[in-house]
């Protein structure tokens, strides 16, 4: 029987944000529309590549790594678009700058939360290494030590990471600010804001999946509605339905985690635990050997997967950080240029007087 679920969160169910962006002022030229279409078509292709043929493959750590790789590529795409548009920061509306800076801080915080959870999961690997080491020895107390280490692993895995709860709040806040600002007199600005809207939607989607996977709860998994005018809308809706439905199915079956590699370790631990828990009784050597071998393989696969995922999250962190730093640097250059020009005007004014 499925567990009762909270109503799925849905955002932007009625409003079309592009009505605001295209209603007034200058319209993008064919060249600008071509840039936007190319960006959105590329975004659609990146989303299609994340959909797998088998639902059972969803949320393997290898898939999460691919999702983060795609997110890094999408954020790189928007940087390339900004450069191609030749829209200098001095021409950005203050609202655009404020939104960008605010969102970037939130994304950095999300990355830190995910990295802290990966670090926590990696710490549990020490307990498993102790188990494997103890069971190789000849000591009569090896089962007692191994049993204690298995208990330590289970307690560590079942503990909660407070950063993840904060992460849900940040993601929810991002989702509540998906509306595009009104842009009246900048065709390039309209293209930029529509492209950034796509980046933000996909970013929230991926981060929501990661948060649900790490937290052990699908209650706060989000369903985002996207206007059909987006060239990537169909690919996004298809992927979102595919992934979110599988995550909810997994949790409704009362499984501890949706991370397949972590689940494999949990299964191995459950097989080994009753064997080492009664170490005073004779145990068939082959059973112990096979159970230990299975644990070793699954633990190593989890550890390697987490390390690779951590690298991708760090890459995303660096992309956000460098983009933010570049924007702030350009703003400072603009301010310094204005301040530099001011004394000349004053001197000229004094000379006239």
TrEMBL record:
The keyword Phosphoprotein does not apply. GO terms for cellular component: membrane. Its main location: membrane. The chain crosses the membrane at residues 191-214. Belongs to the ROH1 family. Keywords: Membrane, Transmembrane, Transmembrane helix. It is a single-pass membrane protein. This is Protein BYPASS related. It is found in: Membrane. It comes from Forsythia ovata. InterPro entries: ROH1-like (IPR008511). The keyword Transmembrane applies.
């Amino acid at each position: 029987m499925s567990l009762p679920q909270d109503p799925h969160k849905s955002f932007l169910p009625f409003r079309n944000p592009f009505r605001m962006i295209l209603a007034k002022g200058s319209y993008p030229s064919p060249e600008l529309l071509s840039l936007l279409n190319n960006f959105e078509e590329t975004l659609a292709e990146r989303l299609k590549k994340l959909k797998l043929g088998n639902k059972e493959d969803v949320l393997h750590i290898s898939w999460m790594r691919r999702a983060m790789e795609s997110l890094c590529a999408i954020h790189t795409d928007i940087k390339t678009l900004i450069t191609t548009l030749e829209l200098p920061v001095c021409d950005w509306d203050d609202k655009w700058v404020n939104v960008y800076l605010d969102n970037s801080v939130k994304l950095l915080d999300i990355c830190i939360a995910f990295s802290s959870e990966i670090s926590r999961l990696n710490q549990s690997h020490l307990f498993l290494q102790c188990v494997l080491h103890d069971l190789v020895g000849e000591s009569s107390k090896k089962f007692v030590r191994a049993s204690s280490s298995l208990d330590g692993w289970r307690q560590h895995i079942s503990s909660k990471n407070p950063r993840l709860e904060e992460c849900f709040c940040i993601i929810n806040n991002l989702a509540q600010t998906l509306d595009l600002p009104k842009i009246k007199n900048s065709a390039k600005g309209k293209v930029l804001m529509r492209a950034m809207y796509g980046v933000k939607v996909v970013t929230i989607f991926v981060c929501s999946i990661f948060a649900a996977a790490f937290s052990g709860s699908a209650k706060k998994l989000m369903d985002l509605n996207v206007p059909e005018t987006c060239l990537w809308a169909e690919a996004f809706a298809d992927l979102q339905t595919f992934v979110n439905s599988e995550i909810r199915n997994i949790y409704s079956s009362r499984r501890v985690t949706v991370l397949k590699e972590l689940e494999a370790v949990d299964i191995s631990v459950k097989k080994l635990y009753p064997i080492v828990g009664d170490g005073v009784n004779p145990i068939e050597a082959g059973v112990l050997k096979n159970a230990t071998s299975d644990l070793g393989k699954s633990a190593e696969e989890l550890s390697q997967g987490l390390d690779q995922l951590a690298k991708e999250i760090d890459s995303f962190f660096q992309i956000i950080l460098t983009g933010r730093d570049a924007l702030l640097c350009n703003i400072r250059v603009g301010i310094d240029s204005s301040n530099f020009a001011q004394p000349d005007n004053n001197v000229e004014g004094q000379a006239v007087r």
